[in-house]
Amino acid sequence: MSIGGIESIGFTPLATPVVAAPAPAAPSAAAKAAAPDFGSMVLDGIDRLEGIQDRADGLAVRAATGNLPNIHDYTLAATEAETATKLTVAVRNKAIEAFSEIMRMQVG
């Protein structure tokens, strides 16, 4: 059994430091089509979270009925679901905070 890290919920830590680069003139149509939009990334993350929670729920039922030979599988899945939920809530809170800050900005 392998234990998935934070990558299993869609977050991939940066392998190299971020360095400011000159901005490109204009993205091509192919680059725009290849890059996912923010909405689809949010929906994908929520779908992954739901899958993680469904797996933990399924293992909980199997553990309760005695059909789970290794109880640690459920413990790991439940912890992963809890961590993924906390991360999702933290990202949501930061997004709401950023939106509120943008709405408070004065134009002009």
UniProtKB/TrEMBL annotation:
Belongs to the FliE family. It comes from Nocardioides zeicaulis. It comes from the Bacteria. Keywords: Bacterial flagellum, Cell projection, Cilium, Flagellum. The keyword Aminoacyl-tRNA synthetase does not apply. This is Flagellar hook-basal body complex protein FliE. PANTHER family: FLAGELLAR HOOK-BASAL BODY COMPLEX PROTEIN FLIE (PTHR34653:SF1), PTHR34653. The keyword Transmembrane does not apply. The gene is fliE. It is found in: Bacterial flagellum basal body.
